[in-house]
User: What shape does this take?
Amino acid sequence: MKPALPIPTVERLFVYHKVLTNLLIEGTTHVFSYDLANRARNTAAQVRRDLMSAGCVGSSGKGYDIRSLLDRLSEVLEHGASRQVIVIGLGNIGKGLISYFSSPNNEFSILAAFDRDTRKTGKPFQECPCFPIADLEPFLEKNKVELAVLAVPGPVAQVLSDRLVMGGVRGILNFAPVRLAVPKWVHVEDNHITMMLKKVSYLAKLSPDQVKESLTTVG
Amino acid sequence: MKPALPIPTVERLFVYHKVLTNLLIEGTTHVFSYDLANRARNTAAQVRRDLMSAGCVGSSGKGYDIRSLLDRLSEVLEHGASRQVIVIGLGNIGKGLISYFSSPNNEFSILAAFDRDTRKTGKPFQECPCFPIADLEPFLEKNKVELAVLAVPGPVAQVLSDRLVMGGVRGILNFAPVRLAVPKWVHVEDNHITMMLKKVSYLAKLSPDQVKESLTTVG
DNA sequence: GGATGTGAACTATTTCACAGCC
DNA sequence: GGCTGTGAAATAGTTCACATCC
Assistant: This one.
């Protein structure tokens, strides 16, 4: 088996995949490394290196063929990956996710939401059924879902995470502002919005106080 | 001026700050590097190195004094950083943010939301006033806000980003699934939920198919 | 004894720079 | 001529390991 790709590379590959999809929709068929680099905000050398690591090939004269690039990237990034997701917590974040993923172009399907508030359960939210938390285990038992979005308040996040893990979930996108303890075969990706906002604030503070040039000078 | 801290370090420092805050609330006054490491899910050496880079000092016998650690971290991470934010787009994500930041313990204050839907504007959402997008420029003119959360559909994100930048915004937390083009003195932090979910899916697929041991064996 | 602080070694990642190809 | 593919160099980041201090 070939060595796993470094995480930073994987993240950029996802970006390329998105950019390339848009280019294809616009009707473009080929792209140069520096062109893709511009759109993905990095360097041509980096793009070539990344694509190489992913096993993509271009041709010296014409650049990369977008369609085969996408095929290859999809294979590397998406082959065998779960696409079925449940959402825990039907607050605003949970609802936002469901709205977002009910758009037709989505690659994930949200099978169900779970909430402890009985006013929310029973009836579906935007065609997505919402069940009481107590139904979680039987649902997981029956549906073998491997991915979950955890969008609940911090204090209950760990307990729910444990239940997800016991139910066979192997990937959690966690919006709760706590660090979850999970066994090593489960991957948690934290989306701590507060922390991101702090980071933005920190970096905005650092960036040089520059004269505001016309926006048209910026790529 | 001392050299800027590496981004990965800064991110970990935010985590330490959070962990330490919780510890302080619990009444703990001192912490060892390996202890902090456990709670932040990394190694003792890393913790010591990070704290050192941030200019923190501990003492060999007793570990680190949490209160002075927090003081120092706050100084490094938060001194001079903007705390006032506006939210563009009062969809579910926008609402979620506002709900989240209206909790009393928050460090950011959301001054206003903006939306193009006139059914949402005029009346406040949870005490946060919501204005029509047309009011953006005068609002920025008057309030000198430097941070914005962009939670609008992809197709309109770039235009709104331009308007934010022209209005003096220097940091954007972007939920729209596009790469924004901004001048170099503006920092954009992307929170592309779809991409994060893809990443979780990718990593969950990779993680070894491990025997499920008792959850109690896991920290 | 048991921590911290830190140079030095190591590992990972990015960038350079150029041979080879179209 | 211009672009890809890729060793090699450079840089960034992490971990080791031990002198030092409480």
About this structure: The longest strand of chain B covers residues 109-115.
